[in-house]
Amino acid sequence: MTRQQRFNHIIAYFEEAMPDPETELLYDNPYQLLVAVILSAQCTDKRVNMHTPALFGRYPDIPALAEAEYDELFSYIKSISFPGNKTRHLMGMAKMVRDDFGGDIPMTVDELVKLPGVGRKTANVITSVVDNQPNMAVDTHVFRVSARLGLTVRAKTPLETEKQLIKYVPTELVYKFHHWLILHGRYVCVARKPKCGECGLRPVCPYYLKVVSKGMG
């Protein structure tokens, strides 16, 4: 099986099993999504969703967040990982959006990565979720799952993974593809003990064929 054939099989599977994948972060607009994605770094979406309603109630938009005081903002996110850094990132991000982008969340990767707390992964998430742009966000789930499934070969960094995936995924499906891998990695192809027994991708999965099935024999 060629790599393109493997991609085609996996895409066909997900299009039937998960036709409309979406982020599990709760948001109503690009501002809320950007804040939620910044908060989600090395933290679960579930925990972030527990805290954002109160946070957005107090800081409903960029102007409000840009005027936030450190101690008060910190109090809303103190149970999220790295609250100190994220408080500073949110304050800096809001001020830059207000001062440099007229209060509107920019919608290109090059502009987004200029914002405090926004790396390439976050920028790819924002542009693909809000605008369906063909940008591939690579988090730990995507990095792990794409390697296990044989979609990437010896990719050592998220950027290498992103470039290899983009090469084989149809442009119009890129914004969906990273959600498919994230959700598959979160609930089926988990890190320590993947649930191969309930995975529909076993027939084309090198990890299952080379590691798991041989261990069963």
TrEMBL record:
Its EC number is 4.2.99.18. Its cofactor is [4Fe-4S] cluster. InterPro entries: DNA_glycosylase (IPR011257), Endonuclease-III-like_CS2 (IPR004036), Endonuclease3_FeS-loop_motif (IPR003651), Endouclease-III_FeS-bd_BS (IPR004035), HhH-GPD_domain (IPR003265), HhH_base_excis_C (IPR023170), HhH_motif (IPR000445), Nth (IPR005759). [4Fe-4S] cluster binds at residues 189, 196, 199, 205. It comes from the Bacteria. GO terms for molecular function: endonuclease activity. It catalyses: 2'-deoxyribonucleotide-(2'-deoxyribose 5'-phosphate)-2'-deoxyribonucleotide-DNA = a 3'-end 2'-deoxyribonucleotide-(2,3-dehydro-2,3-deoxyribose 5'-phosphate)-DNA + a 5'-end 5'-phospho-2'-deoxyribonucleoside-DNA + H(+). This is Endonuclease III. The lineage of its organism: Bacteria, Pseudomonadati, Bacteroidota, Chitinophagia, Chitinophagales. DNA repair enzyme that has both DNA N-glycosylase activity and AP-lyase activity. The DNA N-glycosylase activity releases various damaged pyrimidines from DNA by cleaving the N-glycosidic bond, leaving an AP (apurinic/apyrimidinic) site. The AP-lyase activity cleaves the phosphodiester bond 3' to the AP site by a beta-elimination, leaving a 3'-terminal unsaturated sugar and a product with a terminal 5'-phosphate. SUPFAM superfamilies: DNA-glycosylase (SSF48150). Binds 1 [4Fe-4S] cluster. Residues 39-187 form the HhH-GPD domain. Keywords: 4Fe-4S, DNA damage, DNA repair, DNA-binding, Endonuclease, Glycosidase, Hydrolase, Iron, Iron-sulfur, Lyase, Metal-binding, Nuclease. Belongs to the Nth/MutY family. PROSITE patterns: ENDONUCLEASE_III_1, ENDONUCLEASE_III_2. NCBIfam families: nth. PANTHER family: A/G-SPECIFIC ADENINE GLYCOSYLASE/ENDONUCLEASE III (PTHR10359), ENDONUCLEASE III (PTHR10359:SF18).
